[in-house]
Amino acid sequence: LDDLLPNVTLVYELYDNKKSAALTSKIAFLMDASVSGDTCETEQLAFYGKGAHIVLGTGTSGNSMAMQSVLKYFNAQQGIPQVSGSATSGYLSQKEDYPYFSRIVPTSKPFAVAMVKFAKYIVGWDAGGIITGNDGFSLYGGDILQRSAYEHGLEIKGWETFQLGTQDMTD
């Protein structure tokens, strides 16, 4: 990157949230230099206590929501920007809730529209059903599917929501 950013040294640190929103929130507190006291020790803060200028990640929408929910209050109340390469939830586009979040992939809306168009125009179905989890990401995706189905004349005969992590759906 010498040609792109001459005379600039990029420094990075890696953190593994282990796909855990709780751990993601704890990591988020390490990103701001003004955090101290009960939250964490100064020497644990990112970049030797100087904090981060930007956060790249996380890999999921839910964890990105958890991260940005903390980061938006840091950096002298201006927030720490966050960029995700794989978070697709449309909720993250709500700037009042996630003001310093951006992504490099589209939201899940184009995929939902494509699924409905495939079912209606390629397979030839006139009706379908929606099955989602009860988390925000799944419910948002189900809502997008339902809206797209309505717009394209695909009848939704039923919508079932399951508790996240359900192992047995026989009931």
Name the descriptors.
171 residues; alpha/beta; 3-stranded parallel β-sheet; two-stranded parallel sheet; 5 strands; 32% helix; 13% strand
Descriptive account of the structure:
This protein has 5 helices and 5 strands; from the N terminus they run H-E-H-H-E-E-H-E-H-E. The chain is an alpha/beta fold and 171 residues long. The strands form 2 sheets. A 3-stranded parallel β-sheet has the order 1-2-3, covered by helices on one side. Strand 4, helix 5 and strand 5 form a beta-alpha-beta unit. It is elongated.
Strand content: 5-15%
Largest sheet: 3 strands, parallel
Strand order of the largest sheet: 1-2-3
Please tally the helical runs, counting DSSP H or I stretches of 4 or more residues: 5
Q: Give the overall shape, derived from the CA principal axes.
A: elongated
Class from secondary-structure proportions: alpha/beta
The ordered H/E elements are: HEHHEEHEHE
Question: What's the short story on this structure?
Answer:
The protein is an alpha/beta fold.
Per-chain topology:
Blueprint: H1 21-29, E1 55-56, H2 61-71, H3 74-77, E2 82-84, E3 101-103, H4 109-123, E4 127-133, H5 136-151, E5 155-162
Parallel strand pairs: 1-2, 2-3, 4-5
